[in-house]
Design a protein that fits this description.
- This protein is mainly alpha-helical.
- The protein is built from 16 helices and no strands.
- Helix 3 crosses helix 5, helix 4 packs antiparallel against helix 7 and helix 12 runs antiparallel to helix 13.
- The protein is globular, with a radius of gyration of 20 Å.
- The two termini are 19 Å apart.
Length: 422
């Protein structure tokens, strides 16, 4: 795996910490800004909305720009957004800073995913995406609990300052280790890239990703108040349990990344089914401290076990437009991260309680399972299962992706130092 892919994963650590750390900071933010917890939860949705809008928008806007320069600009804007959030005097300013940070984060994800996919052969796509998603997993293991710890002891603003510092480290890594990727002789055409949206399998992949992510984060976004108000745990336990979710996420990513290339639909079906079962269990046993702790770990495991397959699936069905494929995947995940917390906040506002967020999440993942079944049925109907024709099409897609990133059309190995040459 090229070194540059790991640098992208390191950068995603900073992005992911900012995206998910609010799940452990909602109570202190709500108190400081004088808003309700569901209102504070809208900050999570604000970030996700920025990701949904920003991913395809910035993917199109930067389609013909040098990849490394684009990544440097986006991680810089993201870091400035963290500083703005740390200094925000009002809820409204904090809200805007989250949207701006999300736009930059979305662009980085979209461009970074296309770069990672272009630097590896087709049979290592899921593993390359697993490295990037691994940055999210490590963010959940270290970044999110650390953010909650800082929020508990030094105030929630200190968590934003810490992410700003992590962004500066990521900026150094991107500037020094991401190779120069020359623009292709034939520049990407927007019309040709947009043609991927004529494929119903692309839209099914969007629906599956959004529902699978939204179901888990419908409950996860309100895990902190569920732990304290329903399970009766002391607030000091929240960072540790969020970290346990991250440990599950890291293990799930490693396993899913290694098996998804060979068993794409099997990983999606088993992972989303497991998430549904765990969410139902969380709703039923929310008052049990032991059950809630165990289920936090298991939810992280199942959600991130599925994530590499969801990413690879999008690149398989939309790989002829690699930048927009990465942007579409990012938008789909964050469409779920928008709708999930919104749905969770809605059921809380209707006085169903914090445990009801797990029921709502289970409904979303159940719909995701139905969509996976539909996608599998359509693919088998086309005579294009996980076998020969998919691999043949994947090789063609990989060649197209390689050309789009300026690599030679031949799919093969990449130098160990991750350098890409014309």
């Amino acid at each position: 795996m090229p070194v540059a892919v790991y640098i992208l994963g390191l950068s995603v650590f900073a992005l992911g910490t900012s995206e998910f750390m609010l799940s452990g900071l909602l109570p202190p933010i709500a108190d400081d800004m004088n808003v309700s917890i569901p209102q504070a939860g809208l900050l999570i949705s604000a970030f996700a909305i920025g990701m949904v809008v920003g991913a395809p928008l910035l993917a199109v806007a930067t389609l013909r720009l040098p990849r490394r320069t684009t990544l440097i600009a986006l991680i810089s804007v993201f870091g400035l957004g963290q500083i703005a959030g740390a200094l925000a005097p009002t809820y409204e300013v904090l809200f805007v800073s989250r949207v701006v940070s999300a736009l930059a984060c979305a662009g980085f994800w979209a461009v970074g995913a296309a770069v990672a996919i272009a630097m590896v052969p087709v049979n290592q796509r899921a593993r390359a995406m697993a490295v990037m998603i691994g940055g999210l997993s490590v963010a959940n293991v270290l970044g999110v609990p650390l953010g909650a710890f800082l929020g508990e002891h030094l105030g929630w603003r200190s968590a934003f300052w810490a992410v700003g510092a992590a962004s500066a480290v990521a900026l150094i890594g991107v500037s020094t280790r991401i190779p120069h990727i020359p623009l292709p002789e034939k520049r990407p055409e927007l019309k040709r890239e947009l043609a991927i949206y004529r494929d119903r399998q692309v839209w099914l992949a969007i629906v599956i990703t959004a529902l699978a992510a939204g179901g888990v984060f419908c409950a996860f976004s309100y895990l902190a108040p569920l732990l304290t108000d329903v399970a009766g745990l002391d607030s000091g336990w929240v960072p540790w349990i969020l970290g346990l979710f991250g440990v599950g996420a890291l293990i799930g990513t490693m396993i899913g990344g290694r098996v998804a290339d060979a068993h794409l639909f099997g990983v999606m079906l088993s992972g989303i089914t497991a998430s549904t079962v765990f969410l139902v269990a969380l709703a039923l046993f929310a008052s049990s401290q032991v059950a809630v702790v165990a289920l936090a770990f298991l939810l992280g495991l199942s959600a991130f076990f599925t994530a590499p397959a969801l990413n690879a699936r999008m690149f398989n069905v939309a790989g002829a437009a690699p930048t927009l494929a990465g942007a579409t995947t990012t938008a789909a995940f964050n469409l779920g991260n928008t709708s999930g917390p919104w749905l969770g906040g809605t059921v809380i506002d209707l006085d169903f309680g914090f445990a009801s967020t797990a029921w709502a999440g289970a409904a979303m993942t159940a719909l995701a399972l139905a969509a996976v079944g539909m996608a599998l049925h359509l693919q088998r109907g086309d005579g294009d299962g996980d076998g020969g024709r998919t691999r043949s099409r994947s090789r063609l897609i990989a060649k197209s992706a390689a050309r789009g990133a300026g690599r030679p059309a031949r799919v093969g190995s990449v130098p160990a130092d991750g350098r890409v040459t014309p």
